[in-house]
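Give me structure tokens for this 500-residue protein.
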Amino acid sequence: MNGNASKMITALRSALAMLVLAAIVAGVAIAGPCAREAHAVSLTAGSIKAASLAVTPTYNPAQGDYCIGAYGTSKVLDVQSGSLADKGNIWIYSANDTAAQRFVITKVSGKWHQIVNKNSGKALSVAGGKKADNVNIWQYKNNKASSQLWCFHNVKGYTVIENKLGYVLNVDGSISKDKTNVTQKTYSGGNEQKWKLIKKNDAAVKIDANKVQLVSALGSNKVIDMCDGNLENGGNVQVWSNGSSTNQKLVLSPASGYYYTLKFGVSNKVMDVKSASTAEGANVQQYVSNGSNAQQWKFIPCGNGCYYVQSKLGKYLTLAGSSANNGTNVCLLSKLSTNQGRQQWKLVKTTLGASTYYNKMIKFIKDANWKNRIGWGFNQRPKLAPGADVKGCAAYCYDWVKYMYGHNDLTAGAKKSTTANGIKTGSIVHWKYSESNQHWFVVVSRNGNKIHSIEGNADGKTRDSTTAYKIKNGVLYNGDKAIDNKHLYVYTHGDHCKMQ
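Here you go.
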């Protein structure tokens, strides 16, 4: 082989080597992104099963209250039927901002968080901690297991919520329908796996406006109670054993924002802070509705279906004592650091008939036969008690008893007492010095030793009085004149608190 041929072979070999090298480089260049992505997946092995999400950075949402909304809808994550139980199911439902739809996101470590329902106090969990697609999501007591730890990926303005088992929160069906179940699933990028974290700056929640009882967390049978079924401004609020009476039933109505009023069924007056006081231990009473801050309350979930009930004045509805014994007073205090059960209340739905004592009383008092001053002659009969040979104040009382309690006789079936201490709301009182010096009146309400009376006379006129009668040292006074118990007769025809 001559020199020229040798040079040609050497040149060909060099060219071939360069072609091979170019091909290798090109191959690496082509494979590079896949290699990098595979590397990213390997770094997050056991964390998530989709390369496209693995390269998406996680973020830490601000700790606090959230509603968690499904992609492009008004549906949010919801605990089915507001369950308080372990294994309570999670689905989506139309947003109503109730406690069953509020979740507290709390950082545990690194990128991992717990998501705890405010109503139940239980954590969002994967059923049985199973590593598989389509496993159900429920709530369960906090144990910080991998099945309860979640991180958050920002994907084009939405959030993908990944658990430590390697799956994501997934709507298992239509994202636009109520009651669609929620499961875990391998990430696919679909809309059913996209969520909106909706931050709530007020810890209070919306309440279903309804008839309710407020039950103390310290006693399942102890409820907010209007002392003695009082109908007057200033009637005191206490707790008492639940008798399902109208003095223990409240009408919950929206006021403004997250605030509500609580109206006692027995009196049509609302729960109120006396003198709008902001002091520690300020007393809680009832008062005619006036729209003031002293009459507005909001409900802050604290787990196990209980709420803190906070006045718009700032402090919290609190038992004045450390237990819920009958007659324990209710006041306002700052948030307690110990024995918080004194400030925790459950809302239990109840019913309240339209024909309460208060409503019947108002209707009777406004009755045209009395309102228009129709006179009662000596032989005239009361319109509701035919055949009764009575007149004046006794006639008025006959009509009252017939209308309120359904009795034809003024005294039949009544509990009788001959002491001033036997006088109650709804009682009929008869005092007598002689045939010419006697009187009958209706006790509309007794507030402590003050008596609110309604009276009729022989001229058919009526008087609504809160000053004519009072009780002092167990004796009834007519103005300044004491009425000896031997001249006093009290008839109580029924429990006005239970009248519906």
